[in-house]
Specification:
This protein is an alpha/beta fold. It has a single domain (2-217), classed as Alpha/Beta hydrolase fold, catalytic domain (Rossmann fold). It is built from five helices and eight strands. An eight-stranded mixed β-sheet has the order 1-2-4-3-5-6-7-8, sandwiched between helices. Strand 1 (2-9) and strand 2 form a beta hairpin.
Length: 224
């Protein structure tokens, strides 16, 4: 079942979708979408497949549109206010299910969402997909300067999944980041995949499911 709703965010209502979990769910999950100024929404394919991977364990999974995207109120805030949007979504999940949480974010969603998730004791594990560690073109009209120093103190289990041809996450820079990140952590590179995992979404989903089984759930996916 999919439930359409609006969350109360710091800049107004946030459009959201909740994929229901099973009654015996052990975790709830949140998935955040890529950059809204470049077409990113909760309907993004990577976001959808990440949701499916987590929902397959029976977890209820929430997706929402950042401020100014889709039907969400407010205006884009260059990744600053969006961290507060993530916190509002985590608050809603906690109030609704009273379960420990797993966070996952794709690209921009990883950059801003990991910052909120790592600082929140209710979040027990975090996933960064297509984490944008690479340089942004000098002529870009959109300010995008992401730093990940906070991950050095983030001691909860972490998974990073990126494509071997990710134009926003060069392998060398991802490996450098992974070395600096606190344990426990895992870096998975899907060879041949680009930033959007075009044609490789099944491999992305399988990588997430394998890690969740090992590091979070201890059980295989409940739903095939």
């Amino acid at each position: 079942m999919i439930r359409s709703l609006f969350l109360q965010g710091p800049a107004g209502n946030l459009e959201a979708l909740l994929n229901a979990g099973v009654e015996s769910a052990t975790y709830a999950a949140l998935v955040c979408h890529p950059h809204p100024l470049f077409g990113g929404t909760l309907h993004n394919k990577v976001v959808f497949h990440t949701m499916k991977a987590l929902n397959n364990f029976g977890f209820p999974v929430l997706r929402f549109n950042f401020r100014g995207a889709g039907l969400s109120q407010g205006e884009h805030d260059n990744g600053i206010g969006e961290v507060e949007d993530v916190r509002a979504a985590l608050d809603w999940l906690d109030a609704e299910f009273h379960l420990p949480m797993v966070f996952a974010g794709f690209s921009f969603g990883a950059a801003v969402g990991l910052r909120a998730a790592c600082a929140d004791a209710r979040v027990k594990a975090a996933i960064g997909i297509g984490t944008p560690v690479g340089p942004v073109a000098a002529d870009s009209e959109v300010p995008r300067a992401y730093t990940f120093d906070f991950l050095r103190e983030c001691a909860k289990p972490k998974l990073f999944v990126s494509g071997g041809r990710d134009q926003f996450g060069p392998r060398g820079k991802l490996e450098e980041l992974a070395k600096r990140v606190a344990e426990p952590k895992k870096l998975v590179i899907i060879e041949g995949a680009d930033h959007f995992f075009e044609g490789r979404l099944r491999e992305l989903r399988e990588a997430i499911e394998a890690w969740v089984k090992e590091a979070v759930s201890g059980q295989p996916p409940a739903i095939s």
